[in-house]
Amino acid sequence: MTQLALVIDLNVCVGCHACVTSCKEWNTSGWAGPMVDQNPYDGSPTGTFFNRVQTFEVGVYPKTETVHFPKSCLHCEEPPCVPVCPTGASYKRPDNGVVLVDYDKCIGCKYCSWACPYGARELDEQQQVMKKCTLCIDRITDAKLSDRDRRPACVLACPTSARLFGDVHDPDSEVSIAIRERGGYQLMPEWGTKPANHYLPRRKTVMHIDQDELTRVDNPLRKEDLTTYTGEETLDDVAW
Amino acid sequence: MHPAFSVIFLTTLIGAGQGLFLAMVTGQLYAIARFLPVQADRFYAVGSLVALILLLAGLASSFFHLGRPERAWRAAAKWRTSWLSREVIVLPIVMALVFAYGIAHWMAWTQPLFRVGESLQVDATLLLGLLGTLASFALFVCTAMIYAGVKFLQEWHTPLTVVNFTFLGAASGFMLAAAYSAYIGNPLVTFFGTWAVILTLVGLISRLAHLSRNAHLKHKSSVQTAIGVRHTAVVQKAQGATGGSFNTREFFHGRSESTAGTVRLVFLVLVFPVPILLIGAAYVTASPTLPILAFVAQYVGLMAERWSFFAEARHPQNLYYQSVA
User: Which of A9, A90, A167, A225 could make an SS bond with A162 (beta carbons 3.0 to 4.6 A apart)?
Assistant: First the structure.
């Protein structure tokens, strides 16, 4: 079975919100739209988003790190939001594992949002139906698009390639390899929701250099050097 | 969680309606067993009518919770998995049975249909009353399981939620039955009042048990598991929106902790000691108005109780919505 998902690399996400805006742009004018805003130019602007980039600070100053954290529906393999839906509007596509909402069946009771621990679902204030990330279902299932374009808008927009897209059930896919080899993990594993989306952890690139590698203590020239130095360049200045 | 008034009215109104119906049936059963004088059919019929009005008012209120109320009929579809769907099915069944029970009494369809043992004459009202009782209990379970069934809301995910909904609903219904009896000058006010006090006391025990459980609750999720970073100090600096979102409106009660504490105190006073004292005073003074006051006080208290029930629930998604900056 196919399970399409995103793998988000927190090590390279710079928090630019390009995925947020391109998601909104594509989906507000596409199958899932509109994604309506209220007071967009006023004091408290609010609106429907499928994807948000949040920022967390880890540690205590001065030993702090800023983690930019893109958050969207994780397309759980055990989606708790689906069985609670009284109308069947919320469903998981059997062919590719994407969790979707049928906007023509949704009654806007918000019960599915209570049953999602991740806060991935948002009620559209104008349409009064529940909305969420579709993994750009209208793009990724469009056979007319080239392979390059048949990916979610957020993935195409990311300037640092922090977002990978693919089938996490295929062990040889780019996403599966990334999860396997780069420490991919799931959010809130304690609930047993088995999110399909994974995150790649922050990694520090540390180079370890021994003093030996900088100054060669057993340099044979040093033993053979009989010069008596009077302020000029020594052997240590010209060779290691 | 954000306490929505539509849901507060829904759960308290249908709770009182179911409880009043249960009180009517209990009165009839006691009369059959000759523990109580037999009442005129009109007494049960009017009582059922009041119960039906409460159930209808609750149903009407629930529509205000929906974004698309015109599609509400679709909600009966997924009864195999969704407690909300089950409630949507059981509520009309209860209403139909309450209506039928009231009509059967009004039309005096009390000719015995068959006989059990020596003396039990089974008529249409008794059958409908027993069916309605089963349906009312099923409705208490369905309504409460909507909340108790969501494992992410650990404050609600306990059998105590079902126990509270059942006993507090039944208590307010019996309280209303006492008020109704007092209003029409029926001596059954003592009977219903006694049961209302007993049910209120059981409700007090289970609600206090619920409060104490929640006070010691250890939440499964933390900001560390939410973003998967292992560090003792993780603080949110931005949530991706400056003006709030559905997530900040639906999952926070939006009041100060002191307000929530005050509401808790208000419901603990209005739901439990005040009606019990009023019923006791009514028993001593034979007052026709005090039981009515007892019901009104308890109902207002129950609205505060439901508000508090929502406000005390902490959703794990809130971990992602700690800071706007």
Answer: A9
- In angstroms, the separation between the Cα of residue B62 and the nearest Cα of chain A is 10
A229 in a domain, yes or no? no
Distance from CA of A41 to the nearest CA of B (A): 11
> Is residue B325 scored above 70 in pLDDT?
no
Measured distance CA(B15)–CA(B166) in Å, rounded: 8
Torsion, CA A55, CA A59, CA A64, CA A67, rounded to 10: -30
Residues of A in contact with B227 (CB under 8 A): 56, 67, 69, 187, 199
Write the pLDDT tens digit of every residue in B150-172. Answer: 999 999 999 999 999 999 999 99
* A167 CA: distance to closest CA in chain B (Å): 22
Chain A, nearest residue to B78 by Cα: A86
- Distance from the Cα of B243 to chain A's closest Cα (Å) equals 4
Specify the CATH architecture of the domain B5-320: Up-down Bundle (1.20)
User: What CATH number does residue A125 fall under?
Assistant: 3.30.70.20
Domain count, chain A: 1
Q: Is A216 inside a domain boundary?
A: no
Residues of A in Cβ contact (< 8 Å) with B247: 119, 122
Residues with Cβ within 8 Å of residue A65, at least 6 apart in sequence: A57, A58, A59, A202
Q: What percent of chain B has pLDDT over 70?
A: 100
Alpha-carbon distance of A198 to A20, in angstroms, equals 18
Domain boundaries, chain B: 5-320
Residue A18 lies in a domain: yes
Specify burial of residue A28 (Cβ count, 10 A radius: 0-12, 13-18, 19+). middle
Residue-level pLDDT at A240 = 58
* A211 within a domain of the structure (yes/no): no
pLDDT in tens, A163-208: 999 999 999 999 999 999 999 999 999 999 999 999 999 998 888 8
User: Are the C-beta atoms of A146 and B269 separated by less than 8 Å?
Assistant: no
- Interchain CB contacts (distance < 8 Å): A and B: 178
**Closest Cβ–Cβ partner in B88, B149, B235 for A86:** B88
Q: Please name which of B278, B282, B91 lies closest in space to residue B200, comparing C-alpha atoms.
A: B278
CB spacing of B82 vs A84 below 8 angstroms:
yes
Q: Are B144 and B160 in contact (CB under 8 A)?
A: no
